[in-house]
Structure formats: C-alpha cells, structure tokens
C-alpha cells in the first residue's frame, strides 16, 4: 500500500493542486455497455414485466457494485476523499439517468411526450453538491411541469421501487416549481435542500426555471435571516454533540469541526454571496488563497475519512469509533513514530483539521458581519453604529471596545508590536470583553509574527501568566488563544500536544482540551465554586503558598504526552525550561517540575493501595515531604481526574483522596499515631450514634459498634446511616443474606449493597454472579463487620436510561447474588457459557503484567495485575487466588477505560507474607493465563452455598475494592 498521509502536512498540497473536475470517470462505469444491456433486456422481455424487472435489477446491481468497488480501489490509490465522493455521485447520476430513460421509453412508452409535459429529476441536499459517500442517502427532487403527463407519477413510483430494491436509501419529494417556492418560504430545511438543486436528467428547462425563480423570489434580500437560521442550527447541533470538537470518538459528519460545518459555510456563501464555487470567495475577499486551500484540504480529508468508514463498516457509519480508527489509519497510510502510534498520529491530524474548520468558520463569520454592515440601509446603519458605538478601552491604545467586543484600533497593531498578540487576550480578560470576529481573524492571520523574540519577551510572559492565573475566566481566554493558534505558537511545547489524542477509552478528550478543562476546574476551586463537589480542595486552596506555580503545573502537567519517554519525567524537564521564561523563581520552577513529575502519584496510591496500611501512608509522605506540596498535589489530582471526561470523577474517588490526604497530613505534621486515628474513628462512631435519634438506645449502640475503623473513617455518614438501617431491617426479617439497590444516574452507575456471612471466596462469588448477570463491576467497597459478616457495596455500569428499568435490573442482579451465596443456583455453567461467547475488543491491546512485592506493606504481599478489561475477569482472578490458598485481605480494582490495574493484599492461610520466589512465579503464571484468556473453562469448583459457612475465625480485616469508572 502506498504511503498517502504519512505526515500531517503530507503531500495533499500537490494532489489538491489538480482540478477535481478533471476526474476520469470512464473506469467507474461503462455507460454504453449498461445502456446496451438495458436495450437487450427491453427486447428480450418485451411483454414480460416481472422477468424484465428482475433482469433490470440484476444489471443495475452488478454495475453499481463494480463501480463502487472501483471507487474504493481508486481511493486507496490517490487518497482523495472528495474525488471518491464525486465518483460515487457520478455513478449514481448515470444509474438514475439510464433508469429514467428505460422507464420512460420501455415501460411507459413516453419518448414522444412534449417537452412541456416532461418531468425533471434533480439531486438536492448533499447529493446536489455532486458528492456522495458510499452509504449516504440519495436525495431526489422530481419536478413536475404545470401540465403533467398521466404517466408521471407511476413512472416516478417505478423508479423509486427499483432504487429501493437496489438497496439505496432514497429521500424524495415530488413537487411542482410553485410548490418548491411556496414550501421554501416556510421551511428552512426545504430551502437549504433546494439551494443545492442539481440537474440529473429529464427536462433541463424545469430545473433551470426553478433555480432562477428560487434565486429571485427566495434568496434575494433574505441573506441575514438564512445565515441566522443556519448558524443557530449549527450551534444546536454542536450542543447535542457535547459542544467540543475534541471528543476521542468524533462524528465526522455532524460533529463540531466535521463535514456539516464546512457544508454550512458553503450554504451561507452560496446563499449570501450568490456564488457557485468556493473559489469565488477569494475573488470577493472573503477568504485568502491560503484559506481556500485550507478549506479544500479539510474537505478532502474529512471526505476520505468518511468514505473509508462507510466502506469498512458497510453502512452509513458517521462516528469514528475506536473499533475502526486503527483500520482507517492504516487505509490512510499512517505509521508508528516514537511516542505516537499510527492511530494517534491519524487522530491528531483529524483534530487539527477539525480545528482548521473552526478557524475558517471564525474568518468567514467576520467577513459576513462586515458585509452585512455595509449592506444596511442608511437609517438602520446609523442605529447600528449608535448601539455598537466604538469606545476606548482605559489603558489601551491598541484595542477598542466595539459593542462589548474587543477590536483592533488599527489594522497594523500586531505588525507594529507582535507582543500585542498576547496583550489582546489580557486586555479582553481584565475588561470582560468578547472577541470581535475580525480581531480573531487578524490574530489567526498574524501567527507568523510570534517568533522566539516574542516568546522570550518579558512583557509577553508576564501578560500570559496574568491570563493563566486570572481570578475571572482563565480557561475561556486560554481556549480562545488555543483556537486562534496563539497558545501553541507562544508555547511550542503546548503546540505539540494540540489535537493529540490518546488511543484509549479512559481519556475522553484530546490532550490540549484536557489541560484547558483542568485549568477550568482549578479556577472553580480557586473561586470556591466547587465546594459541594470538592470540599477539601476548596478548603485547602486558600492555604496554598504558591498559587502561580499550581496554575502553571495544572496547565502543563500533560504537556509531554506523545513522546517516547515517560510523560511525567519529560514534563518536569519542560517545566524547568519554561519556568524561568515565564518569570518564575528557581523555587517556583522546581515546585512546578515536582508537581508534574508526581501528578499521577496521589491518584494511583489512593485507588490502588490500601490506605489502612500504615506503610502506604509512610511511603507516600516520604515522597511528598511537605504540607504545601500535599495541598497542591491534592488539588492537581482533583483537576486532572475531573478533566478526563464526564462521569470519571465520583464521590468515592473524592473520599479516597480525602482519606489519603488526612492520613498523610497527620504524619507530615508529626501527629500520626494510633491515638489520633482511634480518636477520629471514635468520633465518627459518635456522629453515627447521634444521627440515629429515632432508634432505641440499644439499637444505636449495637449497630454503631458493628464497624471497624476503616469503615468509620472512609464511608460517608449518609451511607453509614443507610447501611445501619439496611442491616437492622435485615436482622428483624431474619435474613442472613440481603441486598439493597440504589441508582446513580448522573454517574451512569448502579450501586448494589450485599449483606452476607463472610467467607474466603465471597469476593469471587459476588464477582462471578455479576459476570453471569452481564454486569461489569467498576467499583466496590467491601468491609467486614465485628460479628463476622461482610458488608459489600458493588458499583456496576448502568445499562438503562430509565431509573425504574435500571432498578429492576439491579434487583435481579442482587437476587442472583443471593441465590448463588445461598446455594440455590450454581454459577459455573452460566459463566462458562459466557466465556465461550466472550468477545474481546479488537481496538485495544494491553500486555498482561503481574508485579508481586513484599516492600509495599509490612503485613501483606501485594500483587498488582495490569491487563485488558473484560466481563468476568475479576471473578476469575479471585478464584485463582483462592485456588492458590491465598487469603485476600484487601483488593483494589481500578479501571482506566479498557485497562484494569487490580491490586490484591494477600497472605497465606496462616497470615504470613509469600516470600518463596518459586511461588511468586507460579502465582504470576496462573494470573497471566487468566488475563491472556488462556485459562481453562471455569471449573465446577464454587461452593454450593456459603451462607452456612461464616468465616468467623478469620481476622477482622476490612477489605475494600475501588476502581476508576
């Protein structure tokens, strides 16, 4: 396969220099041969309508398939998506034209019908532009004359049925010219479709008359209304898609920065400027030649992606999902580079193109606004000038306030002083001004002025740090800088991660989008706006000694992604380079570097380590060393997780971080001992006692004393009250086994709480029951009570949008868990059947790894596994550990998208660490076999029922399991 798009710049320029109108369509379809075949069919089946129809379908089906196969081959050769779309559109034109001729001449004998009674067949919508994706709908307009022939509508029906039987998705309308004009006035969708009417066959006079009347009666003098409608339609479409172009599974057609945005620009251009070709916009001064080339390159690239998607999936697939991204990257000729895989390089190119579409939209809207202002009548123009009066901005000679939007005082502002390319954003921030489209247009066109001299300029860097640490809306201003291209030019290291996508299911956004969202979260914490979600972060933020260093660290913490080396260590090097340039002191620079190097540490310790193990806290405190670093690392960790994507942050993660923070704070302040911990646990028990005022004193004492310190210190009071009520009701009902369900719609998870006698295989049985029910465990809290029972709370992925349906599903899962634990049902056969039909995702690969350590805990051997996630994995791993006679004291399940990192704190059956090296190797081999999906089918080894076998002799150690969502 030829390398077609190996680099982002590539050789598209040379290819696109050719005129797309010079395409040789001859090898797509032999028109003469198909006409001859149709003539033969007509003569062979003259009076046999059904055999004729079958033969016609076979001929057209063969011609269509060969034509599309050839279009796909040519796409692989020249890589041009626009050419491919034009080839398929041309093929469709020929099929419709030949079919129209056949129907009129052979079916209805209408060849001698006068021109005035003939109908016209026209393409509208996307098909009207002369481009068609392999799976796209075919939008047709049948235009009827005033005096229609009797065969007109039957002929149209015959054609449509043939097209439908060929498998085409045909959108159609049959109207007179008068109908088209009348409906266009009232319906903007119909107006947009008719705007792109293109003649295919039949009466060309009807199509020409429609175009002339539409232009004179509909388009003329209605440009502003059409523009407003199309831009509002675009904004609503963006809102539904998440209002960002940086989703890692973007919609190529409808998403922000996709083909529909380019189409919207062309609709507006065609309507407002009355042009037929995008090249005419250069003559009108709307776009520069370079911007036109960018328009064409973006259009061609997006069409290439879309055509490949349709060909690969065999349907009109518009979402660029993980499942097909690798294949699309291969089709487009991308290759792995150090630090970046082929698919990541392809997706970075995609997002850069989406950003270019945004740039073009901004430039185009600026030209539209200027043009509309010029066209206003005298009185209206005077009113507009009054209401949008240009005002001076205090302290600024370079910029003015144009109706609440910052604008340039003169066209050569940036040329005279390139630092003004940074200053404009600073002035907009301190004066709370929006940006005039013309100003941003000029910014984008002046990016070459940001040279090394500007980057090293002391004033420019002072202004930038002021923007970053602003008490107003730093994320909004930084986003404008990024969209305009300034941020990446001013900080080249940031420019390298603009539009960089990480090929995994954990990160929802590109790296630059993630960093900007992290700054936004920090700003909200700084302003005290997120106190309900992040009470501790908001509480400690005012005590942070160096607010500037924290903001810089949050902006740059992932700036070294996409490099061969570890991005945390590489990011620290970048920070040490940029710190002095930004005007940071050596101490500030070192603080930023440390925060970036350790920005994953607190999250990983909180979610994969046992926070009730003192060694965990000591090791973490040794790394942090100071209370101020602890505060900043906590806040950076919160910002990082929150900015990953919707639903990733939850209250359980917050609780883990708070627990780690408080335990470490005690140690760093010299107060860590068993006494403060006991006191805090005792206080938590008292709080729970006081929170049950309607209970009898006996019950309050009984159910308060059920819990050990880990439970009291890590479970929120609200949940403690729910659990106490749940346990008391179960005891009153005489239930040894019970489950409780609660849905969390916002986080797309469902909570199932299980009360059961404790047992060594309890975790494996619960995990197996969830796997058998098709529920994927994403999080869990597992504790042992003082009377030998287990209180386990399992979080599973939500399946239904409706709470009633989801509650019913969760109740069924809970019932299955009860049945398994009581021995009423056995899991092996169910799990085995699910294992046979299990499909691993083809999109991702994670190399299985097992690490066994005796240094992370003073009491336990710590087993950490990393592999590709799948349903039932936890059940199989815990079963293996049970088979190996290992007692799981604590388990921590962490899911990062498609990857899991599970940590088990274990001992042998007499409570000792596993020290034998050969046994370590055996444990690792058994676990890797499960992770590699090479394990034997699940054996009939689960206990028939564990309710009668409580493990009361087992040490009362709280077991906790938690995970990334």
Secondary structure layout plus pairing:
Elements (H helix, E strand, L loop, with lengths): L11 H5 L14 H14 L4 H30 L2 H27 L12 E4 L1 H4 L9 E7 L7 H14 L4 E7 H10 L1 H8 L2 E5 L1 H16 L3 H18 L18 H14 L7 H4 L5 H25 L8 H10 L10 H34 L2 H10 L2 E4 L2 E7 L2 E4 L4 H4 L3 H11 L3 E2 L1 H9 L6 H4 L2 H11 L5 H11 L1 H5 L1 H4 L15 H16 L8 H6 L6 H10 L10 H16 L3 H12 L3 H8 L5 H11 L2 H16 L8 H18 L5 H17 L6 H8 L4 H6 L2 H16 L5 E7 L4 E9 L4 H11 L4 E8 L4 E9 L5 H20 L5 H9 L12 E5 L7 E8 L4 H11 L3 E10 L2 E9 L9 H15 L34
Protein name: Bifunctional uridylyltransferase/uridylyl-removing enzyme
GO molecular function: [protein-PII] uridylyltransferase activity
EC number: 2.7.7.59, 3.1.4.-
Please explain how this structure is put together.
The chain is of the alpha+beta class. Among the domains are: 12-220, Beta Polymerase, domain 2; 228-384, Four Helix Bundle (Hemerythrin (Met), subunit A), CATH 1.20.120.330; 508-672. It is built from 42 helices and 16 strands. The strands form 4 sheets. The protein has a 4-stranded mixed beta sheet, sandwiched between helices. It has a 4-stranded mixed beta sheet with strand order 5-6-7-8. Strands 9-10-12-11 form a 4-stranded antiparallel beta sheet, with helices on both faces. A hairpin with a 2-residue loop joins β5 (390-393) and β6 (396-402). α41 (873-883) runs antiparallel to α42. The protein is globular and about 100 Å long. The model is unreliable at 1-20, 373-387, 934-944 and 947-965 (pLDDT under 50).
């Amino acid at each position: 396969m030829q390398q077609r798009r190996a680099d982002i710049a590539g050789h598209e320029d040379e290819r696109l220099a050719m005129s797309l109108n010079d395409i040789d369509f001859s090898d797509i379809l032999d028109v003469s041969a198909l006409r001859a075949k149709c003539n033969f069919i007509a003569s062979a089946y003259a009076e046999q309508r059904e055999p004729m129809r079958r033969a016609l379908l076979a001929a057209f089906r063969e011609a269509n398939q060969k034509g599309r196969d050839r279009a796909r081959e040519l796409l692989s050769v020249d890589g041009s998506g626009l050419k491919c779309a034009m080839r398929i559109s041309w093929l469709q034109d020929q099929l419709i034209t030949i079919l129209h001729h056949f129907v009129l001449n052979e079916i209805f004998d209408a060849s001698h019908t006068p021109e005035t009674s003939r109908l016209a067949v026209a393409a509208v919508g996307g098909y009207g532009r002369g481009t068609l994706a392999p799976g796209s709908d075919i939008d047709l307009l049948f235009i009827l004359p005033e005096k229609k022939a009797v065969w007109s509508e039957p002929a149209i029906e015959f054609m449509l049925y043939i097209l439908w039987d060929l498998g085409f998705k045909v959108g159609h309308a049959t109207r007179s010219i008068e109908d088209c004009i009348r409906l266009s006035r009232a319906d903007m969708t119909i107006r947009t479709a008719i705007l792109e009417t293109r003649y295919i066959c039949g009466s060309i006079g009807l199509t020409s008359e429609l175009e002339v009347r539409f232009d004179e009666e509909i388009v003329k003098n209605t440009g502003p209304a059409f523009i407003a409608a199309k831009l509002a339609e675009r904004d609503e479409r963006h809102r539904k898609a998440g209002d960002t172009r940086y989703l890692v599974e973007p919609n190529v057609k409808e998403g922000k920065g996709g083909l529909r945005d380019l189409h919207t620009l062309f609709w507006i251009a065609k309507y407002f400027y009355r042009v037929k070709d995008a090249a005419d916009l250069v003559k009108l001064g709307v776009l520069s030649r370079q911007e036109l080339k960018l328009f064409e390159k973006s259009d061609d690239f997006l069409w290439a992606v879309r055509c490949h998607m349709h060909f690969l999936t065999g349907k009109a697939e518009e979402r660029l999902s993980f499942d097909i991204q690798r294949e699309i990257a291969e089709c487009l000729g991308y290759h792995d580079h150090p630090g970046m895989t082929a698919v990541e390089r392809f997706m970075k190119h995609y997002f850069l193109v989406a950003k270019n579409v945004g740039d073009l939209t901004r430039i185009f809207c600026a030209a539209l606004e200027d043009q509309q202002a010029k066209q206003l009548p005298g009185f209206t123009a005077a009113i507009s000038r009054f209401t949008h009066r240009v005002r001076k901005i205090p302290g600024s000679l370079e910029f003015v306030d144009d109706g609440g939007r910052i604008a340039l005082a003169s066209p050569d502002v940036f040329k005279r002083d390139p630092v003004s390319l940074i200053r404009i954003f600073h002035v907009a921030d301190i004066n709370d001004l929006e940006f005039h489209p013309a100003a941003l247009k000029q910014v984008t066109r002046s990016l070459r002025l940001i040279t090394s001299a500007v980057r090293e300029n002391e004033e420019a860097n002072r202004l930038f740090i002021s923007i970053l640490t602003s008490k107003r809306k730093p994320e909004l201003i930084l986003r404008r800088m990024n969209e305009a291209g300034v941020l990446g030019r001013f900080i080249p290291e940031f420019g390298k991660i603009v539009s960089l996508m990480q090929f995994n299911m954990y990160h929802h956004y590109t790296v630059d989008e993630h960093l900007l969202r992290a700054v936004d979260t920090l700003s909200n914490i700084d302003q005290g706006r997120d106190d309900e979600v992040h009470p501790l972060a908001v509480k400690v933020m005012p005590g942070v000694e160096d607010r500037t260093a924290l903001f810089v660290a949050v902006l740059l913490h992932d700036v070294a992604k996409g490099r061969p080396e570890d991005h945390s260590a590489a990011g620290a090097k970048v920070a040490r380079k940029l710190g002095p340039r930004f005007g940071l002191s050596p101490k500030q620079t070192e603080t930023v570097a440390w925060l970036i190097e350790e920005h994953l540490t607190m999250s990983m310790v909180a979610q994969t380590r046992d926070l009730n193990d003192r060694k965990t806290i000591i090791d973490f405190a040794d790394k942090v060393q100071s209370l101020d670093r602890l505060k900043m690392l906590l806040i950076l960790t919160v910002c990082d997780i929150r900015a990953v994507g919707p639903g990733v942050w939850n209250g359980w993660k917050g609780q883990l971080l708070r627990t780690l923070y408080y335990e470490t704070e005690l140690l760093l302040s010299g107060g860590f001992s068993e006494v403060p911990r006991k006191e805090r646990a005792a206080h938590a028990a008292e709080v729970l006692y006081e929170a049950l005022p309607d209970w009898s004193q006996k019950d309050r004492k009984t159910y308060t004393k059920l819990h050990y310190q880990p439970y009291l210190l890590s479970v929120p009071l609200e949940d403690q009250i729910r659990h106490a009520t749940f346990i008391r009701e179960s005891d009153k009902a005489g239930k040894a086994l019970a489950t409780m369900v609660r849905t969390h719609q916002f986080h797309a998870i469902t909570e199932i709480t299980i009360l059961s006698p404790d047992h060594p295989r309890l975790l494996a049985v619960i995990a197996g029951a969830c796997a058998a029910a098709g529920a994927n465990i994403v999080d869990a809290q597992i504790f042992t009570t003082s009377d030998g029972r287990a209180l386990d709370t399992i979080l599973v992925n939500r399946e239904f949008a409706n709470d009633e349906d989801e509650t019913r599903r969760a109740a069924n899962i809970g019932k299955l868990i009860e049945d398994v634990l009581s021995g009423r049902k056995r899991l092996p056969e169910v799990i085995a059947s699910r294992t046979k039909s299990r499909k691993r995702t083809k999109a991702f690969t994670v190399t299985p790894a097992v690490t066994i350590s005796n240094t992370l805990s003073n009491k336990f051997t710590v087993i950490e596994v990393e592999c590709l996630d799948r349903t039932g994995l936890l059940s199989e791993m815990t079963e293996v550990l049970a088979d190996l006679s290992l007692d799981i004291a604590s388990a921590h399940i962490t899911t990062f998208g498609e990857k899991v990192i599970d940590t088990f704190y274990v001992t042998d059956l007499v409570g000792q660490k596993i020290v034998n090296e050969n046994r370590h190797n055996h444990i690792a081999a058994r676990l890797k076999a499960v992770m590699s999906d090479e394990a034997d089918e699940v054996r009939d080894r689960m206990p028939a029922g564990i309710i009668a076998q409580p493990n009361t002799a087992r040490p009362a150690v709280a077991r906790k399991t938690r995970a990334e969502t």
